Amino acid sequence: MPARLDALPSPDRADIERGRATDPTVRAADIAHVELETARLGMLEAFYGDFGLLPAARTDDAVYLRGAGPAHHAVVLRRAERPRVAAVALRVQDALDLRRLASLAGASPVETMDEPGGGERVRLRTPGGLAVHAVHGIAALPPLAVRPPMLHNTPAARIRVNATQRPPYAPSEVLRLGHVALETRTFFANLLFWLRTFGLIVSDYQFLEDRPEFGPVMAFMRCDRGADPADHHTVALAAGLDDALAHAAFEVQDLDAVAAGGEHLRRRGWRHAWGIGRHILGSQLFDYWRDPDGVMVEHFADGDVFDATVATGRLAFRGTNLAQWGPPLPPDFIGAAPGPALATRVIGTLASSGETTLGKLIATARALAR
Questions:
Q1: CATH number for domain 5-139+172-369, candidates 1.25.40.20, 3.40.190.170, 3.10.180.10, 3.40.50.80
Q2: What is the pLDDT of residues 303-324, one digit of tens each?
Q3: Listed residue (3, 62, 4, 1) closest to 33, CA to CA
């Protein structure tokens, strides 16, 4: 596709500018899970245990990790020769949605999943090649007990009297997988895939204020549940140098769970990525970590929820618009620290992506540094 929004065909440009498709194939209900391949299965299980996920099931070569909510699993770790993000899975409303998706070009037939939790799926790929699974009918599990949210005293409302507030030192109680953030070399093609295939709605765009002809370079997309509110974003999509998972985000109870969970990870010697802070788009309190294979995962709390009536917002793309408060963004947060490896990635992207030009990359880098 062209690098400029104004060069797109009128129907494509209309859906992008509106932030939603008029007649999507299905309307996804939520994110389901992510599947990670690793050569260090035991080490990854240890990290995700310290992160706050618990084993729900095991096979000879895989571990299925759950949160405290009813979802059977939020992360699947599979033994492999090398690390790889194998798939991102979205939950659809019913079996008819699976049949609709299976009719698309390049989609698999509806498959019965012979693995813990069962269910059915259709396998698809984004225009950039990332595996996306649509799933339905995976068994639910009884929710686990978690501590209630903290009760906060304020000068005007003393609601906690004769009681202390000292949560135990332990891993965060992860409640659920909340969203994934994806990077892509073909932003417009991938954006249209999510809008038209899964019926996602753009909650907010970020754009290059100095180069408006390029259109948006980041989209935060939520599920269309009509009057039922959905997370501000279930899939975040960013123009970048690869087609890859940027991070997966897991919801916890409150700020104390974010901070205390991070302290537990820090004491266990795991690698911190960025935080603690509060995002602007989505409003989440956040803290980012990297697993032993370098996959970035986020604890978050207090995120925005929108129903389908909320129109798409727009905000300039710049480093200072990623968080309302928090520490400076580390150079390697977006996987693009300066050096020969970055130069190689830039050259590869320019050679393979019709949407990405050197001018667009330079404008994006300048905006991020602003």
A1: 3.10.180.10
A2: 999 999 999 999 998 767 889 9
A3: 62
